[in-house]
């Protein structure tokens, strides 16, 4: 996705060919020696994160983009997980003798960060590019039978403009931070629930707006072709 939408170089050969195989092997080892294999999996994701930062930095289209911000957040998350995973157990509440300020349960903390700041960030980064791209290109194909209707096709940013995508990004950050706050202080779950609802309601509105514009333009093309 990065090379296609951001005119960035392909991932290096060692990432494309060997990283997925390595992670698969580590997962097999995990069934026998869980702690050792899990550490290797975390390191592998850290290598992927550094490569991702490199590819993003080498892109030719150096334009401010909320999708890029999501990818950078995802890469930074993988590096943070490397730090948190290899911290001594004494930093976490699950330890017998935690330090002066103990982090929450290690498994819960790492899982929450991985799912929300990595997986959901990547999913939303792809949605912000795929929704307008597919809408625009499909309408463009509808115009092959009559180029006069090209005038009806809006600019790609009209389907989902930068400010709307940036608002979704900041909502994602706020809801993610509130999730971490809940892990430290469970009584804050109401704040997380509100921000989570706000974030995905905004995402739904963006999708509906994109679909509405698509069907409106599609109808104009249909009526023009019939005339």
Structural class: mainly alpha
Radius of gyration: 22 Å
Please report the distance between the alpha carbons of the first and last residues.
Answer: 39 Å
Count of discrete structural domains:
2
Proportion in helices? over 70%
* Unreliable spans: none
**Overall strand count:** 0
Residues in β-strands, percent:
under 5%
- What general outline do the C-alpha atoms trace? globular
Q: Mean pLDDT, rounded to whole units?
A: 86
Q: Main sheet?
A: none
Number of distinct helices:
8
Assembly level? single chain
Order of helices and strands: HHHHHHHH
Which helices and strands, and how do they pair?
Layout: H1 2-6, H2 13-30, H3 34-57, H4 66-85, H5 106-142, H6 156-159, H7 162-184, H8 189-226
Helix pairs in contact: 2-3, 3-4, 4-5, 4-7, 5-7, 5-8, 7-8
């Amino acid at each position: 996705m990065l090379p296609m939408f951001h005119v960035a170089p392909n991932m290096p050969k060692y990432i494309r060919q060997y990283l997925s195989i390595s992670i698969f092997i580590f997962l097999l080892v995990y069934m026998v020696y869980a702690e050792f294999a899990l550490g290797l999996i975390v390191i592998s994701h850290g290598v992927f994160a550094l490569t991702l930062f490199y590819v993003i930095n080498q892109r030719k289209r150096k334009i401010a983009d909320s999708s890029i911000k999501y990818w950078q957040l995802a890469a930074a998350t993988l590096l943070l997980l490397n730090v948190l995973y290899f911290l001594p157990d004494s930093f976490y509440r699950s330890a017998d003798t935690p330090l002066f300020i103990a982090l929450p349960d290690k498994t819960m903390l790492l899982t929450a960060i991985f799912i929300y700041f990595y997986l959901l960030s990547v999913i939303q980064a792809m949605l912000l590019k795929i929704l307008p791209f597919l809408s625009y290109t499909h309408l463009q194909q509808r115009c092959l039978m009559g180029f006069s209707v090209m005038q009806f096709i809006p600019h790609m940013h009209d389907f989902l403009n930068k400010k709307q995508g940036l608002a979704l990004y900041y909502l994602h950050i706020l809801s993610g931070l509130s999730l971490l706050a809940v892990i430290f202080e469970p009584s804050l779950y109401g704040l997380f629930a509100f921000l989570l609802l706000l974030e995905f309601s905004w995402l739904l509105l963006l999708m509906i707006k994109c679909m509405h514009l698509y069907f409106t333009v599609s109808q104009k093309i249909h009526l023009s072709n019939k005339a």
